[in-house]
Amino acid sequence: xxxxxxxxxxxxxxxxxxxxxxxDLEIARVLGWYRIPLRSAPKVVDVxxxxxxxxxxxxxxxxxKIEWLAPVRGHELVTRAQLFRDEPDHPRAKEEYYKIQVGGxxxxxxxxxxxxWKRFTFLYSTGEMLLQARELKxxxxxxxxxxLLWKALRERAEKSQHYQPDVPGGMEIDAxxxxxxxxxxxxxxxxxVEW
Length: 195
Fold this sequence. Notes:
The protein has 195 residues and is of the alpha+beta class. The protein has one domain (13-180): Hypothetical protein (Archaeosine Trna-guanine Transglycosylase, Chain: A, domain 4, Roll), CATH 2.30.130. It is built from five helices and seven strands. The chain has helices spanning 22-31, 80-83, 127-132, 143-160, 175-180, and strands spanning 13-19, 33-37, 49-54, 65-79, 96-102, 106-113, 122-126. Strands 1, 2, 3, 4, 5, 6 and 7 form a seven-stranded mixed sheet that branches. It is globular.
């Protein structure tokens, strides 16, 4: 196992999330929170851990890899102005964000590299896959495991009362949801992640 030193349960729900800058990593480390714009958030944010995928902004030695994991302690919906009180006139000051409270950052003993996948939005995975992964593609939930992951995510969302099924009484899975359950939702190369 690549990251055998971590005390992550194999059935833990993992959300791989983009860490856009070193400043954001410091906010997670020092202040204990991470933000996700509501307009681009995955359907379920009530997970056990966030795995932080570092973008090109981290420089040659730390870009395009996951080096840190953080346990999720809770979440709330706030405005950007509430997150950054020193930026009341920011263009997105009134937009809503999930403020995910996280515990202390845990270093991966072996970083998970992106290889040829450099850009994506969010990716759900499991503790078992994280513990064994060497590349980002190793975190993708395979077809036979998707049903179990979807069930766990749905149960978690229902418990947190944030789940609203698209179709009453039915379970319709759209392309965006399938992307979140394992396939990477690629962002065009010329677009930038701005949070």
